[in-house]
């Protein structure tokens, strides 16, 4: 019975994300991604979608670059914008609105943005990313990541001298047995 229920849940999630792109994920729902490289952070991470702006993931990326923005807050022109093109940007919260950051990444050709909390010790509190008062829009998906997760990803890249991580997004965690799920050891699930 447990396997049948898991299959039904997976089918429902797949239908919501893949077949109903206008709906996508709703607020308080999670999207998962896995870092494939570097190996020391080869974990499955949890993110939450923006509440009322941005696009949805209607494509699964098996291997795409997660590129830390330079400057990290991505409130204006990027020094590494050429590396953001057709990839996913890792941005840090602060300096401007979530929507402004998303638009900067979109203008640089990014496929999505993951905005990590700037409170590096935050390992459990998700921020609700909302539209600002500008009446602007964004078409690419925008996700919120816990501060500790964003910090650990950036720290690993710096330690290895790498310009980006390789990730798979979104990941269907309902198909992974709990004992095989590689979760960050610093985060409670």
From TrEMBL:
Its subcellular locations are: Secreted
Give the signal sequence positions: 1-24
Q: Which InterPro entries does the protein's record reference? A: PA_dom_sf, PA_domain, PRADC1-like_PA
Primary localization class, coarse: secreted
Organism name: Nicator chloris
Coiled-coil blocks: none
* Record-level GO cellular component terms: extracellular region
User: What's its job?
Assistant: Plays a role in the modulation of physical activity and adiposity.
Q: What name does UniProt use for this protein?
A: Protease-associated domain-containing protein 1
Q: Which CDD domains match?
A: PA_hPAP21_like
Please verify whether the record's keywords include Flavoprotein: no
Organism domain of life: Eukaryota
Name of the gene encoding the protein in the UniProt record: Pradc1
Specify the PA domain's residue ranges: 66-150
Q: Which UniProt keywords apply?
A: Glycoprotein, Secreted, Signal
